[in-house]
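User: Hi! I'm working on a homework problem where we have to compare a predicted structure to a textbook description. Could you give me the structure for the chain below?
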Amino acid sequence: MLQRTGCGMSTVSLVVAAIVEKKRLQMALDYGLIDMPQATVPMSIWWLVPQYIMQDAANVFFIGMQEFFYDQVPNELRSVGLGLYSSIFGVGHFLSGFLISILDKVTSGSGRYSWFSDNLNRALIDFFYWLLAGLGALELISFIYISKSYIYKR
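Assistant: Happy to help. Predicted structure tokens:
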């Protein structure tokens, strides 16, 4: 169960997303579209396919966490375990929104464009993807370290 959960913690899709976003920004610059946020950047939608395939493949393995929360809690607390499993996603989305709010305030000072500017051609979302990939790598390392000492319930 823990191995499947660990496989679901893939940060590779975030690295690919950062690279694709950097490529999109470079194409916007090459075609002179930086200050035209309504213009379409001439880039195929197929550039998005690899990161979505990787993310979906990781989600398939992440189901191990649900199995873990159901199987490894005491029998009397199984519904609580499944509730905890569901709440993890809500807390993650809340923290993500909080992180975006903080980064938007920090990166938009001194007349600079925010990482999340309304003009996506001026935004630096690739930096955000790199930050998430780094945080995901730290999470995976922590998970591996902690899970090595876990003793499964019989």
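For your comparison, note the following. The CA atoms of residues 34 and 121 lie 5 Å apart. The chain is about 65% helix and 0% strand. Good luck with the assignment!
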